[in-house]
Design a protein that fits this description.
Blueprint: H1 20-34, H2 46-53, H3 57-69, E1 73-75, E2 81-83, E3 94-95, H4 109-123, H5 126-129, H6 139-148, H7 150-153, E4 161-164, H8 167-178, E5 184-187, H9 193-201, E6 205-208, E7 211-212, E8 215-216, H10 218-228, E9 232-235, H11 249-262, E10 266-269, E11 291-296, E12 308-311, H12 315-326, H13 334-346, H14 348-371, E13 383-387, H15 394-403, E14 406-407, E15 409-410, E16 423-427, H16 434-449
Helix pairs in contact: 1-3, 2-3, 4-13, 6-13, 8-9, 8-12, 10-11, 14-16
């Protein structure tokens, strides 16, 4: 039973409510937010609180450390620990423009990182972690890649995988390996900007193929293949960036059939598959010899790992791909590859991903409530594609939002040709603090409700 002398701001610790130190830190944050705790209030000594809660001292120490990390507390030496004054933000920009995973709900990322690195350093030869690796991944890395891809493909052969320093490097290497200068790459009208950047640098040309509410239109793809004789087709079929469309299974089968009939390879860039609710099988399952499948850890775990897995069925194609990759990105950093492998094989990656998935869905619910009738997200993934009222143009709204301290991405950034839709992409994971995200979405909602003519030019 919880001691009656326990501070009123601290709830009863739940047995299945996640790590207890996070429950304490969350209670502190909630108490500061609702005014139960005010700047300057002194907190109980750690040993006293540990005894009152019947937890060990380490739990309370970790809770206070986490609260300090959130800028909630400050230590004053022998005088104790106090509620901190609100931190003054040196920048007021609320970044809704970068697709990164949100902080994982119920998971101590810092602790997970420390434990993972400790396990890597205890079990690995440090010389091997600091030298060149040219084979596209060690046996352990490839085994981890096969386990990462099990939800999509069952039990893929590790020998058909390559470990890459991120999906962008994989896309660039595939373009180099599969196409020649001047070749056409077919993509949807709104697509991942990294594809366009790589194609432009390598002298390839992007041609847009019409898409509907289910993704690229099969008849239009077949017509474009006849007309342009493309070097490859690029698809991002699950929670597509930027439209958040998940292509249904029937559409995937149709596109795979056309690619086989027209003998054109497909790059299937699938960073969000593991975040989606019951996604269809990858296109690569319907045309395994035709499709080069990319799965990155950047969107499901953390961008800092810079690890992606590419599935290539043909040994000769694998070697061509490695040659292209080494021309600009010699290898994945061995230490981060080893950490990714450790996390995948010991189950930490799944725990982290589940926490990110839960937090992302909570943030989607927040966006749906705040943006009301304008919200058109899928309820999962990292972003929302928001079609705008007719009185706003996407680039115009992005500039107006920027002037109010909100960063969003206009449709122009994703266009493979002329801009075909008036929309912005809102990324829900790049703002760590949920309260600041809520404030950003509310400010954006108010901005959307106002007409551009209400903004006058300031004179300073």
């Amino acid at each position: 039973m919880q001691d009656e002398n326990i501070p009123i701001w601290l709830p009863r610790l739940a047995l299945y409510g996640g790590p207890r130190f996070l429950q304490i830190a969350d209670a502190l944050q909630a108490a500061v937010a609702d005014g139960s705790l005010k700047p300057g209030d002194r907190l109980p000594p750690q040993r006293q609180l540990a005894a009152q809660l019947d937890v060990d001292l380490t739990t309370v120490t970790r809770a206070y450390d986490e609260a300090r990390r959130r800028n909630l507390l400050e230590g004053r030496g022998a005088r104790g620990t106090y509620v901190a004054a609100p931190k003054v933000e040196l920048t007021s920009v609320l970044d809704l423009s970068m697709n990164t995973p949100p902080p994982p709900q119920g998971v101590d990322f810092d602790d997970l990182l420390k434990q993972g690195l400790s396990q890597v350093l205890m079990g690995a030869d440090t010389e091997l972690l600091m030298t060149y690796h040219l084979a596209g991944g060690s046996d352990s890395d490839l085994k981890a890649g096969a386990k990462w891809l099990e939800p999509m493909f069952g039990h893929p052969d590790p020998r058909q995988l390559v470990v890459c320093p991120g999906a962008q490097a994989a896309i660039a290497a595939l373009i180099l390996a599969l196409t020649e200068p001047g070749d056409v790459i077919l993509a949807e009208p709104a697509t991942y900007p990294g594809l366009c950047a790589a194609a432009s640098q390598f002298g390839r040309r992007i041609v847009a193929v019409e898409a509907d509410q289910h993704g690229m239109v099969p008849d239009m793809l077949e017509e474009a293949c006849r007309q342009h004789k493309p070097g490859l087709v690029y698809l991002n079929p699950t929670l597509q960036n930027p439209t958040a469309i998940t292509m249904p299974e029937r559409r995937r089968k149709e596109l795979a059939s056309i690619a086989k009939r027209c003998a054109v390879p497909i790059i299937e860039d699938d960073p969000y598959w593991l975040l989606a609710e019951a996604p269809p099988p990858p296109i690569a399952t319907f045309a395994p010899e035709q499709v080069y499948y990319i799965s990155t850890l950047s969107k499901c775990l953390t961008p800092g790992l810079r690890v992606a897995f590419v599935l290539l069925r043909d040994p000769q194609e694998r070697e061509r791909f490695l040659v292209a990759l080494r021309s600009f990105a010699l290898m994945v950093a061995p230490l981060t590859a080893a950490l990714a492998t450790q996390w995948i094989l010991d189950g930490s990656a799944n725990r982290l991903m589940e926490g990110i998935r839960n937090e992302a869905r909570l943030r989607h619910r927040m966006a749906r409530d705040i943006l009301a009738g304008r919200y058109s997200g899928a309820g999962d993934g990292l972003h929302v594609w928001l079609e705008l009222p007719a009185y706003w143009r996407s680039s115009q709204l992005a500039r107006a939002a920027d002037s109010e301290g909100i960063a969003v991405t206009p449709a122009e950034a994703f266009a493979t040709g002329s801009v075909s839709v008036n929309a912005i992409r809102i990324s829900l994971g790049s703002i760590k603090d949920r309260g600041r995200l809520q404030a950003g979405l509310q400010r954006l909602s108010h901005l959307l409700a106002r007409r551009p003519e209400s903004f006058g030019a300031g004179v300073v």
